[in-house]
Amino acid sequence: MKKIFILFFGCLFFIAACAQDIKVDSKFTNTARKLDTKNTLQTIAFGSCNNQGKSQEMWKHVVKNKPDLWIWLGDIIYADTKNMQVMADKYSSLKNNMDYRRLLACSPVIGIWDDHDFGWNDAGKEYPMKNESKRLLLDFLDVPKDTLVRAREGIYQSYVFGEKGKKIKIILLDTRFFRDNVERTTGRNKRYIVNNEGDVLGDAQWVWLEKELESSDAQINIIASGYQIISKEHRFAKWGNFPKARARLFKLLQKVKPAMPILITGDRHIAELSRTRLVGLENPLFEITSSGLTHTWSEKRKEANQYRVGDLIIEKNFGLFKIDWSGEQPKVTVEVRGLNNVLFLKKGLF
Ligand SMILES: [Fe+2]
Hints:
Elements: H1 2-18, E1 43-47, H2 58-62, E2 69-73, H3 84-95, H4 98-106, E3 109-112, H5 115-118, H6 130-140, E4 157-161, E5 168-172, H7 203-214, E6 220-225, H8 243-256, E7 261-265, E8 271-276, E9 285-290, E10 308-313, E11 318-324, E12 331-337, E13 343-348
Parallel strand pairs: 1-2, 2-3, 5-6, 6-7, 7-9
Antiparallel strand pairs: 1-11, 4-5, 8-9, 8-10, 11-12, 12-13
Helix pairs in contact: 1-4, 3-6
The structure holds fe (ii) ion.
């Protein structure tokens, strides 16, 4: 009887929390909905750059879309510290935030870090507390204690959702833990100096990535990185600062030819869709950058990106994939939305 009672009120809570403007009861858990990898994903939401000290109002607009999954693309919090208590407190403040709990009540959550939650601005393999920081991230994401990722270095992981013929593989890259150093120019408009020999993923992660792609029987393969991969003209963090690694990733995609590969990235405090062609791949390679859940550029300015499709979006935003499985091949549409669920961009990818 007690179980039925809990189930009944649990369902009521779920319906209420996913609806707009209904307060989330603080009695309920701050743990995300359990991952069910048998679930066929029809709506996936994602985003990045979430300052825990700023308004978390975006979540109530994210949940209006009833996502089957949320993917963090890094800068989940702005820790910027070597002090692990400070980092833990910031994660705790977000996880107990009543608006963020709306998401937790509605959707399972997976994700990666970028620099500010890894350690500090544009940190790489030199960050001294990376193992402790990893534990805090995985705890925040409710990654079970016995998961393989806990036993190896870095936070890279993969998930496969859906039954045969309706599978989506999500490959979560760690682009900080093993990333080589990169220097910046001094003075105004500092830019990173290209590290021609530098690496992003490290040897073990490259081997793992190749295996993950080769073994994938998914109809859609989503690859997540903390920072941009295709766009390379701007002066900020990007795979383009490590041209050898960027070329290696593209070569790997050309070799393995995963079905419907899509890149998703964060970090930039803007949103945009980039598209490039890789010789040998049937379809164009798309990258959706969604960044700025709580903050974006304070002014409108232009930025060159020869690969951009559509507009540069400077408003606070999150990304959505909508997948239609009714035909022989899945149809994937990407959307970028913002406060009040306003639609900034919509494009059919496949
Ligand atoms: Fe970042």
